[in-house]
Amino acid sequence: MLAATAGLTVSSSGCLRQVRNIVRTDDIQQLSVTITTVPADADRQAIRIARHLEETLTAVGVDVSLDLRSDIEFRRAVLYDHEFEICIGHHPGGTDPDFLYEALYSRYIDESGWQNPFGFTDRTIDDHLVAQRTAEGDARRKAVTAMLEAIATEQPFVPLCVPEEHRIVRTDRFDGWDEGHLATRHGYLGLEPAAGVDTLRLAHLDGRLTENCNPIATDYRGRGTITDLLYDSLATKNGDGPVEPWLAESWEWDGRAVDVTLRDGCEFHDGTPVTADDVEFTYRFLQDTSLGNHDTPSPAPRYRGQVDAVESVESRTDHRVELEVETSPAVGARALLVPILPAHHWRDRAVDVVGPGGPSVAQGTTEAVATNNIPPIGSGPFQFGERTEGAQLILERFDDHFTRRPGVDLPAPTVDECRIDIHPSGDTAAQVVANGDADATSLPLGAADIDGVETPTGVSMRDASSWTFYCLGFNTRDAPFSNYRFRRLLAQLVDKEWLVDEVFHGHARPIATPVTDDWVPESLEWRGNDPETPFLGSEGEVDVDAAKAAFEAAGFRYDDHGRLRVRQ
């Protein structure tokens, strides 16, 4: 009995020590956060924002480290692996506020791509996201306003600013630069070349398109301009203009169903006819790149929010296909903008990829996601010619494209060849256009390059509307970023007006909500400060005392050395 009692005492004392360890303050340590972004040679604005935020957080007692990654590594860390705490970068945004459904809907929390990389879950915002998809007219505008106001309250990410878009073009070699937005296919079709000009020469800053032509790979794809030249979609959109027929000759809406009629005689670049079966395959494939081979679907990392609107798709004849959507026609029309893939090339890519290399997709990586897709086979106005990895991509005119037919009132390719040369920086790209060695900069100039651009005779700068935005994103899967109070406090440590002036040299506009001007509600209009999370300071300098008081009012504590504490 004594032995048993002794054993019980020893055992109990061990438990008591564990209890004491739980309630002791030894595990209360300074809060440490990591900011993930890209280096200056990839995005000078992003790294400057990150360094300024590092200084501000350090001033208010947070231990900060920077994690600089290449463009591809950054996208994989944030969009595929979700291995980040705070990320700073350029979000593709959208001309319609429905892009936020893809960005924040809780069902996408474990998926890969632009669908909810922040791991955000909120039932009320889910309801708003769904409501704005199904409403129409004034009812939709009210639903969008409610959604935007709820997002501004929760701050799953902090929209910072919308950068201006400026590109340099040669007006002595081509006319018609004002007809199409240069972030879309329309910017490069329908141009009027001068006599003897048969090549469109683009100065490009991103070498990834010479390494990978996979239209569904978010780690390699930006805004999809080259994809739009290589692939047709049922519909097309010129900047923030309306959605209009493209590969589809016409369509008819009947409630939630859209009956699409394809143009006759269209072919893929390998000579295979484009049929309604390819359209049906595309939507099923983008919804599940494993084609049912996984226990759960493996959606494509791109176009998820668009194809998710499609409840069913069925080919009726070779040239008719019917899509039933769960949304209003205004939102459902966005589903018609995805690239149509040739089933005979992509069906075999539904197999799993085993082993290291390439992105890791939460739902299972298929060959469809991992392939570099070279050469790409589409049905677009240009076809793949050749490439020199890291240096050049050449596209050749597809002479059998429907835009070249008599009577088709759509912009068509007017040159034999589109040559895309890779340059190391924006100022270099602008210079080769000014020197006559290129016809246009295909990507917007960096903010630091705009004021120094020379425009001699025959050269002009073109500005265009933008729907992309810079943001500060949080991985809300983990504390303290799962706490909306903490996210709101971090939002108040960013002086957006100062960033626009100092980091973007005035070539951007600060925002409180990440939608185009037409959709900004009065409650979130910018009037010199963020109406929801105003900056705790002035002229870029944080008021340390005010910031610390705000953290303490939100339930956080500081130690005697002024360090913000968190339980590890």
TrEMBL record:
Transmembrane segments: none annotated. Residues 243-561 form the Solute-binding protein family domain. One of its GO terms (molecular function) is peptide transmembrane transporter activity. It comes from the Archaea. The keyword Transport applies. PANTHER family: OLIGOPEPTIDE-BINDING PROTEIN APPA, PERIPLASMIC BINDING COMPONENT OF ABC TRANSPORTER. This is Extracellular solute-binding protein family 5. It comes from Natrinema altunense (strain JCM 12890 / CGMCC 1.3731 / AJ2).
